[in-house]
Amino acid sequence: MTKASDLFVQCLEEEGCEYVFGVPGEENLDMLDSLSRSKKIKLILTRHEQGAGFMAATYGRHTGKVGVCMATLGPGATNFVTAAAYAQLGGMPMLMVTGQKPIKKSKQGRFQILDVVDMMRPITKYTHQLASADNIPSRIREAYRLAEEEKPGATHLEFPEDVADEQTDSRPIPRSLVRRPTADEKAVRAAVKRIEEARSPVLVLGQGANRTMTSRMLLQFIEKTGIPFITTQLGKGVIDETHPLFLGCAALSAGDFVHKAIEAADLIINIGHDVIEKPPFFMKLGGTEVIHISAKTAEVDPVYFPQIEVIGDIANAIWQIKNDIVPSGRWNFDGMLAARKAEVEHTNSLCDDMRFPVFPPCLVKQIRAAMPADGIICLDNGVYKIWFARNYPARQPNTVLLDNALATMGAGLPSAMASAMVYPDRKVMAICGDGGFMMNSQEMETAVRLGLNITVLILNDNSYGMIRWKQANMGFEDWGLTYGNPDFVKYAESYGAKGHRVESAESLPDLLRSCLDTPGVHLIDCPVDYSENDQILNKDLKELSAKVGAPAAAMPAQPQPA
User: Fold this and answer.
1) Please, what is the Cα angle at 29 between 26 and 33, to 5 degrees?
2) HEC profile of 304-367
3) Which region, left, alpha or beta, applies to residue 16 given φ > 0 means left and ψ of -120 to 50 means alpha?
4) Please, which of 89, 165, 241, 432 could form a disulfide with 412 given CB 3.0 to 4.6 Å?
5) For residue 11, how many C-alpha atoms fall within 13 Å in the half-sphere facing its CB?
């Protein structure tokens, strides 16, 4: 016979679990004791359950394996809610384990007791209360299977303390071999025929293309056909964005050069589209046709109803299409490439502006120069995310971690910490606004305690800058969104990290390189000038992109309104 909490840990080991992130409580003490004897799993004690959840989700994003996090009942479980939504919308496999009072004989009334299983139901793929030790192996296997299955997401198990103390003769269930189904041959043929008939096809690479590691097949397809490609924010890095056929990232909803490139297409090949990211185009009856290539069928709505769907493993589908297709001599990409050329010229006109506080386009250029091709930047949520999505060329998959799904603040630092754990030999930088950083800044202590090598860049404007930008765009008075900050250098030092302050734009490159090359946790307080965000992003881009030559397609898809 085996104690239930020991069996639970054995099942996690059987699944290949490396870490359990979390803040244990009274109701987790049996599991904590069992974890202390594990030779395969390391407990990562965090300072807040939300940080643990973000770390577990990011571990899942990088590895494709389930990230596991643990919390107590009640307030510990409710602190997982944002991280659960982050993983669920973002397609990151994660298992949350929460404790609970004894369910068979409790002497504490309703103290701290919430219906956590029901609370988790709308924001997870699977949630279950363990009522018997005998069922632990099958429930863990099911939670892992569903978390990793396309589309990946969050799962949850509630582990009551009396169940954790039970004895059982159950044993772990080995992992099953799973292969994603391949796309139907006739669907592939229909897609090939339509692409060959097009005059100006374009690829749009979304979140699913990044998630399922389709880079190799897509690059071969692009090299064979010469068809240009666009990415969504969550599709960044699927193909090296220094490639001459890269047309840009859809960082804005409309009115950018990339939308002009899409208007020049008469066929959109939408790869790995996920409805949590609004596409950079609206479909309309009689408009540009769309081929949907994904592991999941299209979720049809009034502005997305693809004419051809190729469903199955994305890399395999692209491989089939690549092998069958004959590049057409009538394809013309001049309109798309002209839009990209105009975008590059506009970006180049801004990115050497060395004003201080630092100008966002200059900041992006300096960070790209400092980061190696495999370096990872982890963005929190703020207006700077638009600048990085537009102007930062991602060189490899999952090297630009931004959240265009839940788009939550507070995830930048924990996601950088998990990235540094998964890839200890790569340069990792968290890029946070002052608002987002302060939402989980306590995890600086965790990063120092773990001996991680990360640089935390705080873009300091003493306000919730994204909302101020939207406020200006809507014509409202600038009001209600500014605050004061601590001395971030002293704040970092109080945790045992190294604090730095940017004094001029000219000093930024050397400071970035020094921090990235010096082991330990570094924090850089960087004042940033957002004064031209509204003018550039809301006005200039619309005016300049509108001047790019007329689209080649007769019936363009309609870009989204701002």
Assistant:
1) 160
2) ECCCEEEECCHHHHHHHHHHHCCCCCCCCCHHHHHHHHHHHHHHHHHCCCCCCCECHHHHHHHH
3) left
4) 432
5) 27
User: DSSP assignment, residue 233?
Assistant: G
Q: Which residues does 475 contact at the CB level (< 8 Å), separation at least 6? A: none
- Distance, first Cα to last Cα, the chain: 62
Cβ-count burial 347-375 (b if 16+ within 10 Å, e if not): beebbeeeebbbbbbbbbbbbbebbeeeb
For 297-309, the pLDDT digits (tens) are 999 989 899 999 9
pLDDT above 50 (res 556): no
* 136, 4 contact by CB (below 8 A): yes
Q: What amino acid occupies position 445?
A: E
Cis ω before 357 (30° cut-off from 0) = yes
Categorize the per-residue pLDDT at 492 as very low, low, confident or very high, splitting at 50, 70 and 90. very high
Cα–Cα dist 386/391, whole Å: 8
**Omega within 30 of 0 (cis) for the link into 341:** no
Q: Phi and psi (nearest 5°) for 118?
A: -70, -35
Nearest to 219 by CA among 205, 199, 200: 205
DSSP secondary structure string for all residues of 243-301 = STTEEEE--SSSSSHHHHHHHT-SEEEEES--TTSPPSSB--TTS-EEEEEESS----B
Concatenated DSSP letters of 444-478: HHHHHHTT--EEEEEEE-SB-HHHHHHHHHTT--S
Cα–Cα dist 375/427, whole Å: 5
Look-up: residue for tokens 């394809």? 331
Apex 423 CA angle, 421 and 424, nearest 5? 70
The model carries a pTM of: 0.94
3-state secondary structure of 10: helix
Q: Which DSSP symbol is given to 558?
A: B
Q: What is the DSSP letter of 395?
A: -
Structure tokens at 20: 């359990």
Q: How far apart are CA 9 and CA 13, in angstroms?
A: 6
Mean pLDDT over 127-134 rounds to: 96
Mean per-residue pLDDT over the chain, rounded: 94
Residue 424: which region, alpha, beta or left (left: phi > 0; alpha: psi -120 to 50)? alpha
Taking each helix axis from N to C terminus, what angle separates 360-370 and 508-517, rounded to the nearest 10 degrees? 40
pLDDT of residue 111: 59
- Determine the pLDDT at residue 279: 77
User: Which residues, listed in sequence order, are joined to residue 129 by a DSSP beta bridge?
Assistant: 158
Edge-to-edge strands, sheet with 67-71: 42-45, 19-23, 67-71, 94-100, 154-160, 126-129
User: Three-class SS of residue 405?
Assistant: coil
Question: Residue 53 is which amino acid?
Answer: G
**Beta-bridge partners for 459:** 433, 526
Residue type, position 277, single letter: E
Amino acid identity of residue 23, one-letter, is: V
